[in-house]
Structure formats: structure tokens, C-alpha cells
TrEMBL record:
It comes from the Bacteria. Gene3D superfamilies: 3.40.1280.10, tRNA(m1g37)methyltransferase, domain 2. It is an enzyme of class 2 (transferase). This is tRNA (guanine-N(1)-)-methyltransferase. It catalyses: guanosine(37) in tRNA + S-adenosyl-L-methionine = N(1)-methylguanosine(37) in tRNA + S-adenosyl-L-homocysteine + H(+). S-adenosyl-L-methionine binds at residues 114, 134-139. GO terms for cellular component: cytosol. NCBIfam families: PRK00026.1, trmD. It holds the Pfam family tRNA_m1G_MT. InterPro entries: Alpha/beta_knot_MTases (IPR029028), tRNA_m1G_MeTrfase_C_sf (IPR023148), tRNA_m1G_MeTrfase_TrmD (IPR002649), tRNA_m1G_MTases_N (IPR029026), tRNA_MeTrfase_TRMD/TRM10 (IPR016009). The gene is trmD.
């Protein structure tokens, strides 16, 4: 997959691609990336990338010309390639695991990192395919929002992470992931649940599923609303509710 990131602050982006799992994905050729400082495409002698908003108001707005020139310069010559231009924005649609999976099917993703009050609307209308919000809050850095999306997407590509690990993660089937434990068996009076030490794979599987459902019910009950549950999940949820009722007596 090709990743191209348009930013005023390349140094924020570079470290991410040079570290940990991403660095290995780049080394293996799974990821090819390019960081573009769109200030370099500004035509005036001061390399101006922002200006005051029409109609007044606080803050500055990123200008059309530098971003448009940068996007035109990196446009793909391969018209058959699946390509999307992404603008992370608090005004966008909610980012989900399903959206990450959709974007992971692309050959190329281009990210526009906003700053200040954001982009001139005409850039969004002319170029942007996906305006995406990573949460109901506001960031000062479009770079951070872009990296959130990139991190969720690239790890889904073949060869980046063990496929078995991906299947058991939170949000893959609408249920949050179960809790994990490792050595030592006892830490500050807290012990590893005995079932995980039993070696009984089926009991471990059911325990993990039940714990995932319990966490989802506690932290994200909305994920279970209007969701068709398996008979096993229905039974496990019934057990959880009975345990909660018993605990409240």
C-alpha cells in the first residue's frame, strides 16, 4: 500500500514510519510512504499556506492553492489503482473498525493534515473522498488524526500482524476483547484466573468470550444493541446478568 501524507509538520509524521511494526512493514515493502510539506507548493515568496477566513472569526484557514498544487503533483499515473483522499476532521463521519477495513483494501491512501481552523471548503469539495472524525473531540494536529487512521489501517494488511491476533481483537465482531494475563502468576495479591492455567482450551475459549461480553456490557453496551447474538452469547449474557443480580443482593 502507498501512503502519502500532506502536512506542514513532516517531523511529526516521520518518527512513526521509522519505529516499531511500521518500520518493519516499510522494510518488507508492504508499505511505501511519502511525506509532503505542502508549504513547498505555495507560490508566493513567503511560502504562505494559510490566511484569514472570509466573513471574519478567530483563527486561520489553510489556503487552497498549496494543497491543490501538492495533490495535483502526486496524482497517480495508474488510473486503475484504488485511491482515496482522506481528511481527518472533527466534522467528519465516525471512524470505525469497519471503515479501517474498507480503507485497507485501497492501493493508495492520501492524507491531508489540517491545522488551525481547517481547510478551505473548496479543497474538500474538489478532492476529498473521506472526511473522517477519530472521535468527538478536537485536536490541534491533523497529523495525529491521520496517524490514528493509518495505524488502524496498515495493521490489517497481509504480512503486518499475525492474522490470528486480528481475529480476536476488540470490534472485530462487535464485542470488546477479553483481558490478558502473563507471568508472574501472582502480582501484588492479584492472581491469574485459574481457568487460564488449566490447559482446557474449550473452557478457556468460553471464559474469554464471557469476559469480552462482560466488558462490552460494562463499557460499550451500544455495541450489543440490535445485534444478532449467537445462542452461546445469549446464554453467557444471561449468566452475566444473573451474576450481577446476585452480586447486588
Amino acid at each position: 500500500m502507498k501512503l502519502k501524507i500532506l502536512t506542514l509538520f513532516p517531523e511529526i509524521i516521520q518518527g512513526f514510519f521509522q519505529s516499531s511494526i511500521m518500520a518493519k512493514a516499510v522494510e518488507r515493502g508492504i508499505i511505501d510512504y511519502q511525506v509532503i510539506n505542502f508549504r513547498e507548493y505555495a507560490a508566493d515568496k513567503h511560502r504562505t499556506a494559510d490566511s484569514y477566513p472570509y466573513g471574519g472569526g478567530a483563527g486561520m484557514v489553510l489556503k487552497c492553492e498549496p494543497i491543490a498544487a501538492a495533490l495535483d503533483a502526486i496524482s497517480s499515473s495508474d488510473q486503475s489503482a484504488a485511491r482515496r483522499i482522506v481528511y481527518p476532521s472533527p466534522s467528519g463521519t465516525q471512524f470505525t473498525q469497519a471503515k479501517a477495513l474498507e480503507l485497507s483494501q485501497m492501493d493508495e491512501l492520501v492524507f491531508i493534515c489540517g491545522r488551525y481552523e481547517g481547510l478551505d471548503q473548496r479543497i474538500i469539495e474538489e478532492y476529498v473522498d473521506d472526511e473522517i472524525s477519530v472521535g468527538d473531540y478536537v485536536l490541534s494536529s491533523g497529523e495525529i488524526g491521520s496517524l490514528v487512521i493509518i495505524d488502524a489501517v496498515y495493521r490489517l494488511l497481509d504480512g503486518v500482524i499475525n492474522s490470528e491476533s486480528l481475529l480476536e481483537e476488540s470490534h472485530e465482531d462487535g464485542v470488546l476483547e477479553y483481558p490478558h494475563y502473563t507471568r508472574p502468576e501472582e502480582f501484588r495479591g492479584r492472581t491469574v484466573p485459574p481457568v487460564l492455567l488449566s490447559g482446557h482450551h474449550e473452557k478457556i475459549r468460553k471464559w474469554r468470550r464471557k469476559q469480552g461480553l462482560k466488558k462490552t456490557l460494562r463499557n460499550r453496551p451500544d455495541l450489543l444493541e440490535n445485534r444478532k447474538l449467537s445462542k452461546e452469547d445469549e446464554k453467557l449474557l444471561s449468566e452475566i446478568e444473573q451474576e450481577d443480580d446476585h452480586g447486588s443482593d
